[in-house]
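Recall that a protein's primary structure is simply its ordered list of amino acids. Everything else, from secondary elements to tertiary packing, is in principle encoded there. The following example makes that idea concrete.
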Amino acid sequence: MNASYTIDASGREQGDKGCRVPWWSFTKTLIAIASLRAAELGVLTLDDPAAPHGATLRQLLRHESGLPDYGSWPDYHKAVAAGGDPWLAAAVVNRGVAAQTRSGDWRYSNIGYSIAREILVNRTGRSLGEALSELVFAPAGVQSASVAESSDDLLGLQGVTQGYHPGWVYHGLVVGELSDAARILRALLEGALLGPKSLDEMQALTVLSQVQTAPWQEAAYGIGLMAPTVADGSRLYGHTGGGPGSCIAVYGLLGPNGPVAVAAFSDQGADVERCAVKRLGCVPARTSEILRG
């Protein structure tokens, strides 16, 4: 199945309704929003060192902790494919900390986001699902989103390999309707979820000029946001995600009349990023690879 949902600058919506899917690494964007909102409320701070690895929450959210990504571990993919239970989260973190380089180094890291999740949970005194519901889902007016805790929570979703356990996504796996992913991103970009200072911090970018993959001209990352440019010079904000069975791309474009947001999904190998760019009315780059989160 290939599906998409678009919300234009005036708030008009069109696309595949009722399509409930895994949001994969778009969950990182939600953790980042919740963390910034919690910081606004004085519940946590972004710049205090977080033991045992020494990186700050800000560095974890910006992928600047120096921690590696378990996505590069062959034994991780072998274990997932075997269909067993997830490894202990503490063992994954400890293995990552043992391979940590200096803080400040940009390295895309699911391990870093798993630690950021724990900081959010510990400081708010809420489960991840409760924290996201209070700090993101309710303010954005969405009701379909939730955190999958077991294989049963994935039943009836599109694009999930049978028997897959969501615990393999150590920062947490949000699932919900494709339309609600687009609504959350649009609410973020129009300033409905965070104050201006926090939103500016989220959009302060590290440009990764060495990464040029279609449909992007330039790749960049902020706090929980991929921020690539396309051939016509437009900069998008959002996140790509993928896992066993499917991929999703949720991106928005800031325009003079307000933000436009789109969520694109495929469990058939379609180029969801190129689809999102097309739906946003941008001109994609002319290469064939996909940048995945």
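The first helix runs from residue 26 to 40. Strands lie at 2-7, 13-15, 20-22, 146-148, 173-177, 206-208, 219-221, 236-243, 246-255, 258-266.
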